[in-house]
Description:
Radius of gyration: 18 Å
Structural class: mainly alpha
Shape: globular
Number of helices: 12
Distance between the termini: 25 Å
Number of domains: 1
Largest sheet: none
Amino acid sequence: MDILSVVILGIVQGLTEFLPISSSGHLVICEHMLGLSYPGMSLEIWLHFGTLLSVLVYFRRRLLELAGSILPGAPKPETTANRKMLLALVVGTLPAVVIGLSFRSSFEAAFDSPRFASAMLVVTGIILLSTRLAGISGRYVTIPRGFWIGWAQAVAILPGISRSGSTISAALFLGIRPALAAEFSFLLAIPAIGGAFLLDIFSSGGIAFTPGEMGMLLVGTTTAFVFGVAAIYSLLKIIGRGKFFLFGFYCLVAGTVSLIFMS
């Protein structure tokens, strides 16, 4: 693997992790087209780590607010709301943990199938377009709603199913206002991506790369971080304008063209 390929994959990961077009699906397809042979999810997880850093940096103030809500002190209205948000994030994380650990080997096999990722990209397109039917009522994130959004994230472990697309779509169908739906989706990504990264490290026996390999992975991680920040900013602007569903057309076309290309 050369450094240019790693940079390309870093750009793809950074842009597609938060834009609702499936980072995992794009990585699997791009690796196939570039002729890269990186088994399982190792490279993908390191690139996901770059986007994890981007959401931590972008939402650093919001994360400090949430963390501060569990510190001792007089309860305030905003403190209560932040605690409920934290509980919703914890509950929303559980489905992905259960499904991911129970079917890890099956998911790893799916990551080695570009045709499967392409087909699931078409499914993502249908999900995104269906959000035009969602009736937004300005609801807030509650623990039960966080749980159902968590199940949408669990399904998105499959390559080609967008994590941000499925979770934001689920939130919209639950009546949650778009800006809050996007924020919850981004915050929900932190334990999901962080947990997957640690699990991959431990299952592989630790970080065992040559200096050259580690250097390229750092380049990929940095690239994914920079483009991840740009993607978060862009999606928040787009969803605020009510244009979220338009990504569905892209997923339908990209998935269909990819299937034709590999047939």
